Amino acid sequence: MPVLKSICKRVWEESKTVYRKYCLTKKAVTTMNVCIISGSARQDNNTFRVGKALQRLHQNDQTELIDFKEYDIPLVAQSDLDQDLSNPFQQRLARAMKESQVIYIITPEYNWSITPEILNWLHRWGDKQYRELFDQKVFALVGVSTGKGGKAPLLHLTGILNKIISYLNLDAFVSARIFEAHYVKEVLDEEGASKGNAEFDAGMNVFVNYTRRMVERWNH
């Protein structure tokens, strides 16, 4: 365990060094607009804890955490969609996406894929009337698991987002670095605060710093 903590500390320090060097050579985006989508509709889900943890790491940025427990987007067969007639949940989600530079999408592994809510949201909104919400964005993806897991849904999600970007001819991209949040209840409390797991904390910090660098490169 001491060896593991030493390695995690070294990785975290190296990540901070890389980020500081990058800031010296590029004009950094001092404050980002960040949209964090917690894509689970279950009560007391682990996904929202991870969303709060991301908010903590972006405490100097403008963040909006969207909770899919409030999800309200109809299925295709239920009704048509019109932005001018959207409900409060849709309005808040659309505003957060439009104003953001980076969109984090957090999903649990649901039958080896993303949640039905995320799938329906992207199927309904991955269309021309919602084009501006996806344009000029960096998408960063997080998979959540109560044990080991979380990569499978991100592979599916990456494919869907890339299809939307291609179909709508957008200037946007899906960040290559993903984050798998394992054993969430053991490493984060209900408010997203760390419980002291050095490996998890180092990995999430590296992921967020990498995402920030991608946003800065994209905006310069």
What does this structure look like?
It is built from 8 helices and 6 strands, in the order H-E-H-E-H-E-H-H-E-H-E-E-H-H. The protein is globular, with a radius of gyration of 17 Å. Helix 1 runs parallel beside helix 8 (198-218). The chain has one domain: Rossmann fold (3-Layer(aba) Sandwich). Strand 4, helix 6 (151-167) and strand 5 form a beta-alpha-beta unit. The protein is 47% helix and 14% strand. Strands 1, 2, 3, 4, 5 and 6 form a 6-stranded parallel β-sheet that branches. The chain has 220 residues and is of the alpha/beta class. The N and C termini lie far apart (41 Å).
- Average of pLDDT: 90
Overall domain count: 1
Structural class: alpha/beta
User: What profile does the largest beta sheet have?
Assistant: 6 strands, parallel
What is the helical fraction, as a range of percent? 40-55%
Shape: globular
Low-confidence segments = 22-27
Q: Termini separation (Å)?
A: 41 Å
Annotation, overall tally of beta strands: 6
- Based on CA atoms alone, the radius of gyration comes out at 17 Å
Would you give the CATH topology? Rossmann fold
Helical run tally:
8
H-E string: HEHEHEHHEHEEHH
- Tell me the CATH superfamily: Flavodoxin domain
Question: What are the main properties of this structure?
Answer:
alpha/beta, six-stranded parallel beta sheet, 8 helices, 14% strand
